[in-house]
Amino acid sequence: MPFSFICCKYERLIDIKITFPEEVEERNVVFEKGLLHNQYQKKSEYELDEKGKVSFFKKNRNNQVNIWALIDITDMDRNDVLLLNDKFAEFWINEMTREEKKKDIRFTFVIQVDEINDYLQETFYESGGIFMAKHRSRLPVLYIRKHDILKVKWADSDSKYISINKEMRKELKKIYDDSEIESINS
């Protein structure tokens, strides 16, 4: 399941300062607009009990399918990862065709929280890198609302999937506007 395996070996974590327009009340609206502007289609949205929601977006490109999940949650723990895996399974069954499931899948998920807690601290700072497999790539992103900081977890430079990881970071940069994410490729 995609949310369970974001850590396996050493990786780098970068902080990115983002500037949002003051008049935007909900930051997830900014993220969603960026995806829609880049030809992603919103495919489904699921409630996460009383804690928030997850929205899935999809775009087909040649022999790959790019999937994004925007996770808007008040506070995240290990049980929420299991719930997210269940919601991803629903999305996979309901929104992906048999042909799409055979393609190269690139999955970026943005976890949006008010503040970082112990679980997220452990997951993003103290654990290993991203588990990536052939035709199944992930890019975990953490957005901390309180500080307007985007934290991107990426593959170790020795990974055989580093080129795919770089492509996914370029897509992230494109979605969120070059001027706002200067250090994404550093």
UniProtKB/TrEMBL annotation:
Source organism superkingdom: Bacteria
Name this polypeptide is given: Uncharacterized protein
Taxonomy of the source species: Bacteria, Bacillati, Bacillota, Clostridia, Lachnospirales
